[in-house]
Amino acid sequence: MPWRCELTGKTRQIGHRVSHSNRKTKRRFLPNLLSVTLMSDSLGRSVRLRISANALKTVDHRGGLDAFLLAAKDAELSPRALDLKRQVVKKRAEAA
Known about the structure:
CATH 2.30.170.40, 4 strands, alpha+beta, two-stranded antiparallel ribbon
């Protein structure tokens, strides 16, 4: 399972571990990923995603999963999240 947020695209970063003597060795900075179940209002069902803690706060701030997906860029979303976005857009178009 890759270390990548399904909603924001946040992934691992590479940097240096610096010792007291200033020697530098490679290290990884991993995102704080959580497995969460979010409710989609348009689809009427819950969706299980692996997202970062920052993305979870952003979803709450924007007013739910559907609002987040509609505002998100397609390039940042994972294939699963992109499929969810297409389903949400289709349901909203049918309702309107």
